[in-house]
Amino acid sequence: MKKKHFRFLSLAFFLFGIFLLLNSKTDITGAIVRVSSIPLGFSSIFGIVFILFSVVLFIGRENLEERLKVKKTSVQKRGGSYYLINKKTSESFSLKDIKEFSIDKHLRRELRKEYFSDLLRLYSDSTEQERFQYKRFIEALSPNTNRKDLDKRLKQFANVYNFLKDKLAYMDPKRIDEAKSSDFSDIVYVRFENERDTLWPEEESIGFLPFDEVKVNPSRGPLFSVIPRIKLIQDGYLLKNGKTLNPKWSSQKRQDYLRDKHGIDVGTRQRNMIFFQIEKDSKIESFGNYKNIIVEKKVPLVKVIRKK
Known about the structure:
The chain is of the alpha+beta class and 308 residues long.
């Protein structure tokens, strides 16, 4: 699909999402228009969903990262009280100040324009225990808002924000630049691949696990099967140095071993061995004679040792 088609779909999703949100009492946006033909609960939910899809279609990774970033606002505790801080100007406002300023609707509009989006991002990106400090200022900037409705909208915004944040982290290239050798497990794994059909990093380099979610069997889930190198050594497929094929094994014996022990039955003689280490926080489960790397919120980084 061409780029202009994505933009058209994005605009259509966005406008329809706004229409649905306007159909409910949306405290965050300040809209109070209703369309009686659509139930309010469904209107709000579907509005968020359509706007979410419009964002995903329209903005690229860099733009998405910029939109999720807190621009200039922080909240700090001083002498037992919380203050809203403008990090660019060093101005600070107590919760009492914000409540008093918000009495004037024009001043409140300016304060919301200046700080409200950042407060929503801070709220969404914090733990449940920390959210209260941001919520107090959000409430102070929404004096005419029904608290129950505001709580619901805050939850919706946090869900969308964290969905997009997870999407951004899924394959964030910055992780490659910031990776260190100490970030990887000492365990070496082996993957048998037809290298021409994969996107493994070069030898002695770091990159993303070449995980193709589309090719995963839905019945097995988001799994990537590998074999611990120690297993290949113990079974005699590799010599103790972990690098050399056992010269006593014929090509047919190696092929039979991979088929019978690990279920690798296609093109085994032409396949390459990829020796690699994986990020320490990666989720790995045992399954029979091999291991499954579970790909969830982000694709793990790998450090390729060698290809044979």
